[in-house]
Each structure stands twice: as C-alpha cells, then as structure tokens.
Amino acid sequence: METVMIRNWIASTAATAQSYHIPSDSDQALGRSSSSTPALVSLATRVYTAAYGLSVMMRAVFMGETLGSKFEIERVLEAVDKYKPDYMPVSPSEIQQLWRSELTEKYDLSSLKFIQCSGAPLGTEVADKFTAKFPNVKLAIRYGLTETTGAVANMRSPEELERVGSVGRLVEFMEAKIVDPVTAESLPSGHQGELWLRGPSIMKGYVDSQGFLFIVDRLKEVIKYNNIKIAPAELEHLLVSNHEIDDAVVVPYPDDEAGEIPMAFVVRNPGSNVTDTQVAPYKMIRRVAFVSSIPKSANGKILRRELVNSALSVSSNTAEV
User: Fold this and answer.
1) DSSP per residue over 44-104, as a string?
2) I need a labelling partner for 6 at 20 to 30 A (CA). Which of 32, 54, 125, 288 fits?
3) Which CATH number is correct for 6-176, 3.40.640.10, 3.30.70.270, 3.90.1300.10, 3.40.50.12780?
4) What protein family does this chain belong to (predicted)?
5) Per-residue pLDDT for 321 more than 70?
6) What is the pLDDT of residues 97-107, one digit of tens each?
7) Taking 90 as the threshold, does the pLDDT of residue 110 lie above it?
8) Which helix (H) or strand (E) holds 136?
9) What global pTM score does this model have?
C-alpha cells in the first residue's frame, strides 16, 4: 500500500488555487470562471489515477465544473455540441485528432474557449495547425509529473499563451534549474540540459513500506547516435506534421557502429502510401516500421518500452533506410 504525504496535496492544491487567482479579464480570456460568473462546463476525458487527471478533478471541485468521459473523437465532438463546454484538458495525441478530423465540421464547437494540453511534448507545428483550425480557442501547454503531485508549470495569462512551445511559468512554491546532465553544473538561460525541481509538493522517493528502494529500469529516452544526443520528441513532431502520417513514435535501436540509431514507428493516415524512404529524410531516422496503432496507456502516454521490445524483434514490416 502506498502512503501519500498530506503536505504534497496541500502544496499542490495551494499552487493550483494561486494559478487561478488572476485578474478577471484574464479569467475571461482563458475561459476561467470567478465567484461572480456561472460555473464552467469542463469536458474532461483524462484518467483520474494519474496526476493530470487528478488535478483536473480537483479543478472541477474547486471551480464547480461539470466533467465528461473518455476521449473518443466523435463522442467528444457530440458532447461539445450537446453540453457546450468552455474548457477541455487534452493530450497531444488528442490535439492531433482534433485538428485532423473532418468530423469537426459536423458539430458546433463554438463553446470551446480554452484547451489545456499536457502529458507529452506538443510540437510547434501541430500547435500552429490546431490554432489555425480553431482560431477562437486558447491553447495552453502545461507541464507536470506524478512525482510533483501535479503541475510544475502552466500558462496563466493571455500574454503567456503567445509563447508557443513553452509550458509557461513555474507554479507557486516551485523552484527549478537546468543542469549539465554529466557534470551537474548549472547552465545559463537558453541552454538545454536536465531539469531539477525543488518544492513542497515533490515526492520523497520510490520506497516500500520498509524504506527499500527498487530500480526497475532506466527511463531515459534520449537516443545516443554517434555520441550525438537526439531527443525523440523532436523527430516525432516533424513526422506528425506530415499530413500522410497520423501518429509516430521514435525509439532507440541498437547499432554496432553508431551505438544507437533512431527507429520510427509510423501510423499512416487512411489512403496514405507514404513509404519508408519518404520517412527517412526526417533528421537521422534510420529504420522504419509501419504499424496500425501506437500503444498508449489509459492516460494517453506512449508505452515506449513495448515499442523498444518490438523494435528488437524481427518484423517483416520493418525496413532499414
């Protein structure tokens, strides 16, 4: 049985409350309610067992909102048309479904004012295409972890929404710094590195009831290609910006010469004939497998370990390029 410190929940709830204590004009621009306005309708489709889903549920209680159910594109569109929600939290894969689906033309989606995306990186290209299709919907990115009991950073004002590609500013009580992953030395602004966080909502660690720590696996996703570090998310964003590709995930594949090479699992759009040689030019992708779907958890997170295991097995629909 897991034990949760009450302090974590208090700190996370306080930070959430502070995030919504902003001027009324910003409240309106972001689709948020105040004590003098009617409660919003939130079409929330996240699983409540993870931090994001739980924070959505807490938000609904805090602001007196109404929640919806599981994300299935046509059911969601029907619900938006019927219940007129102002706000909807989604994952990047759901953002892709919304801007790509032709079903959106069949329903009245004008009630949507604010969509918040979290759970995985959202590419700038996808964000731009979404806002072009839904110009009246404010799109905000939020970053959080189960280990931080919810949000680490979010967008709180209309001005912050203009910073495409950012996840916003740190929530209250949270501190952060970027360090060199090898030397652990702090890096100046504008440099990429490892994110270190400190705050009262952060968990103490993974231990059992007797205090023992268990290491299950290494979750680092960075691909080391000829000593060059490649972030899979960058390649994935490029791939899904192609209209012929519905979804894509990049994982490391062992290579005797390079150490690791990027391998892409690609889901074609219906009617698409995109080939592995057309996928290859996307920045160092050296191996391609076309699949019918990408395995994801109930929270919408990609099950990369399953794909890594699949990559290591011999498959007839895998090609080197």
Assistant:
1) --S-TTSHHHHHHHHHHHHHT-B------HHHHHHHHHHH--SEEEE-HHHHHHHHH-GGG
2) 32
3) 3.40.50.12780
4) Belongs to the ATP-dependent AMP-binding enzyme family.
5) no
6) 898 899 999 99
7) yes
8) none
9) 0.62
